[in-house]
UniProtKB/TrEMBL annotation:
Name this protein carries in UniProt: GmrSD restriction endonucleases C-terminal domain-containing protein
Keyword annotations: Signal
Organism of this sequence: Nocardioides scoriae
Annotated GmrSD restriction endonucleases C-terminal domain residues: 108-216
Keyword ATP-binding recorded: no
InterPro entries: GmrSD_C
The keyword Cell membrane is assigned to this record: no
Signal peptide: 1-35
Length: 237
């Protein structure tokens, strides 16, 4: 269940343990690689998918995007879903800190912004970025969601890729742009993988330019297996 506020966030993809897991997965499912789509084991959730990057990009539905009706207030601000005193921002700062942090309101610690390599000990210089920006999500499907689904999307702690602590300057340069319009200075392949994973998780579409850019980029990146657990999405009646 994709309960927002789950404190045990998935291991970050740049953590050493993660690359080993990814390698193991790649080997296990190498036979299925030609099809791109990788079968999930019997213990896997029906809503969990493992797909190689290029197949994942091919699978993203293309649709015209519609900004009409978008307002930031259509998505809820940070809240404390599990009532442990940390709101979503503080949860992400805690999960991504390079040193142990314990405060309710996380002010100091140590973080590295993977978009640009900037590091800080002062959390006020970092933003929590929605991997797929709220306006972009609206355009590509979230406009049809219930208010409750949009609140969960904006506070998604169920997948460590959905929210990322990055330098405020990189977050502001990104704004609400998609990968056809903006790419980070560093770690472009990681960015593409995580962006695609979040679009899949929330069943969001892409526009044509976005599909073209993602396809080109993915062709230059390792064709790794992306594992995604789909979020529950409820549409407005
Ligand atoms: Ca909390
Ligand atoms: Ca787009």
């Amino acid at each position: 269940m994709s309960t927002p506020g789950t404190r045990t966030r998935p291991v970050r993809r740049d953590a050493p343990g993660r690359s080993m897991r990814t390698l193991a997965l790649s080997a296990t499912f190498a036979v299925a690689a030609s099809a791109g789509v990788v079968a999930t084991g019997p213990a896997a959730h029906a809503d969990t998918q493992s797909v190689r990057l290029r197949a994942a990009v091919r699978g993203l539905p293309v649709a015209t995007e519609v900004r009409t009706g978008y307002e930031r207030s259509k998505f809820r601000d940070w809240y404390d879903a599990d009532d442990d005193c940390q709101d979503t921002r503080d949860e992400v700062l805690t999960a991504e800190a390079l040193v142990k942090v314990t405060a309710c309101d996380v002010k100091s610690g140590e973080w590295r912004s993977y978009y640009d390599g900037v590091t800080t000990k002062d959390s006020s210089t970092f933003d929590i970025d929605h991997m797929v920006p709220l306006a972009e999500a609206w355009d590509s499907g979230a406009r049809r969601w219930t208010t409750e689904t949009r609140a969960r999307y904006a506070n998604d702690l169920g997948d460590g890729r959905a929210l990322v602590a990055v330098s405020a300057s990189s977050n502001r340069s990104k704004g609400d742009q998609d990968p056809a319009e903006w790419m980070p200075a560093l770690a472009k392949c990681r960015y593409v993988r995580e962006y695609v994973a979040v679009k899949m998780r929330w069943r969001l579409s892409v526009n044509k330019a976005e599909k073209t850019t993602l396809t080109k980029r993915a062709s230059t990146c390792k064709n790794v297996v992306i594992k995604v657990r789909r979020a529950a999405v409820e549409l407005q009646k």
